[in-house]
Specification:
This protein is mainly beta and 172 residues long. It has two helices and 13 strands; from the N terminus they run αββββββαβββββββ. The strands form three sheets. It has a seven-stranded mixed sheet with strand order 7-11-4-5-6-2-12.
């Protein structure tokens, strides 16, 4: 058994595949978040109207929770794919932004997460107007913003499956 493991580890290595690129599960499906809410494959995300929402740090807040003066865009979405476990996006971070550097460093340590933002008057919870304090299935969520978060010091996503990780590739 150890000989086989050594053989596999000797010839297979994983390395970061894209320069400052992240794969992000922006909308995890069928997982209840800390607000008691969830998305599923039928949730309307308004993709046709918001194909590339801005990528910001921590919903426009500073690491200490105070509001940023003008929320800073730290990256851009370059692709979007609906999979069985959620809507995955590929993000390219802006190397010139300090908040992007924080997220990149956290992602390399497995400590980066995502949180989606919508437009309140377009969001619905089981067909009724959205309320953060009410549990249930989110049926409409205009994905108008994607936040990336470096987990720690009170910063965490509502959904633990909303992960952001460096793009990886195998090298044989």
């Amino acid at each position: 058994m150890s000989v086989i493991l050594f053989f596999v580890m000797h010839y297979l290595a994983i390395k970061i595949g894209g320069d400052w690129q992240l794969d992000v599960n922006a909308i995890p499906f069928d997982v209840v978040d800390s607000d008691g809410q969830w998305f599923d494959a039928q949730t309307r995300l308004w993709d046709e109207h918001f194909p590339t929402p801005p990528v910001v740090y921590y919903h426009g807040y500073n690491p200490d929770g105070s509001p940023q003066g003008d929320p800073e865009v730290i990256g851009k979405i370059v692709s979007r794919e609906k999979r069985s476990d959620g809507v995955w996006v590929r993000v390219i971070l802006d190397k010139t932004k300090e908040f992007a550097k924080r997220v990149w460093n956290a992602a390399q340590q497995g400590l980066a997460a995502a949180s989606s933002g919508s437009i309140a008057h377009l969001a619905r919870l089981e067909g009724t107007p959205y309320r953060k304090d009410k549990p249930g299935k989110i049926t409409s969520w205009a994905l108008a913003e994607l936040s990336l978060i470096d987990i720690g010091d009170g910063r965490a996503p509502a959904n633990r499956y909303a992960v952001a990780m460096p793009v990886l590739k195998s090298v044989y």
